[in-house]
Amino acid sequence: MSNEDNHFQALIRYRLEQADQAISDADLLLNARRYRAAGNRLYYACFYSATAALLTQRLQYLKHSAVIGFFDKKLIKTGLLPKEYSRTLHLAFDERQEDDYKPFTEPDPETLEDLHTRVKQMVTGIRDYVDVKM
């Protein structure tokens, strides 16, 4: 295995660990009714797992919009990952945008609980995809 392969594998594992940590953070925040912060962590769990999936194709991007766009283009539209993961990523992005930047809004706890379930499914599915690719 080349040094470049080792680098990408380490980076993929790191991004998946970040996704797991973000879900763990969201668990704590949801239990504490800190919904705004929980939405943020759920989005980052999606973002990190999408980044890990792209890294299996040696693709890496700095901007969130690029990660989301290329995730859809390279992994969803090609059928490598289910469309549901794209929907989850977009929902989490929209939730984070609203929670972090829109004044006087309160996140809906039921919406976040549903998103929490979807995000955990997405991260697990991407982990399974990555395991096959590595």
- Average pLDDT confidence is 96
**SS-derived structural category:** mainly alpha
Tally of distinct domains: 1
- In total, the number of strands is 0
Using the coordinates shown, work out and report the CATH topology: Four Helix Bundle (Hemerythrin (Met), subunit A)
**Approximate strand percentage:** under 5%
CATH top level assignment: Mainly Alpha
Order of helices and strands: HHHHH
Give the CATH superfamily: Nucleotidyltransferases  domain 2
Residue runs with pLDDT of under 50 for 5 or more positions: none
Give me a quick take on this structure.
By secondary structure, the chain is mainly alpha-helical. The protein has helices at 3-31, 35-55, 64-76, 83-101, 109-133.
Descriptive report:
This protein is an all-alpha fold and 134 residues long. It has one domain: Nucleotidyltransferases  domain 2 (Four Helix Bundle (Hemerythrin (Met), subunit A), Up-down Bundle), CATH 1.20.120. The protein has 5 helices and no strands. The longest helix has 29 residues. The termini are close together. The mean pLDDT is 96.
Labels describing this entry:
mainly alpha
